[in-house]
Amino acid sequence: MKVVFDTNVYISAFISPGSKAEDVYLLAVDGQIELYTSVAILTETAKKLRRKFLWDDVRITAALKQISKVATVLKPVDRLNILSDAPDNRILECAKEAGADIIVTGDKHLLDLKQYEGIGITRIAGFLYTFRR
Known about the structure:
By secondary structure, the protein is an alpha/beta fold. Helix content is 56%, strand content 16%. Strand 5 (115-116) and strand 6 (119-122) form a beta hairpin. The protein has one domain (2-132): Rossmann fold (3-Layer(aba) Sandwich). It is globular. The protein contains 7 helices and 6 strands, in the order E-H-H-E-H-H-E-H-E-H-E-E-H.
């Protein structure tokens, strides 16, 4: 199953050990799902870790390297402008480029779409429930 995580999933996985976000991230670490990300998603993750959580560059670099070892990092060709929040569009671009089956997010604007070009959009809990069935 090809999956794209929103920035908030990565952040929750790193900030909250033992959380559902970490559980879903560990599915990728264990090779149970094919995880895809993009340079834009990694950049946004770094910005949020720096601004909101005051992580230093060493810690941020280590986190991004860990993600890059687990996920295939893409540079999407198509630029989308579907949602008003630019970072949300970067998630859709990555999912489209990857041919993803699903996007996992906590973002209301993405969740309101429910799907994009056949790519499902779900919360972490919903993904875990479906995956474990």
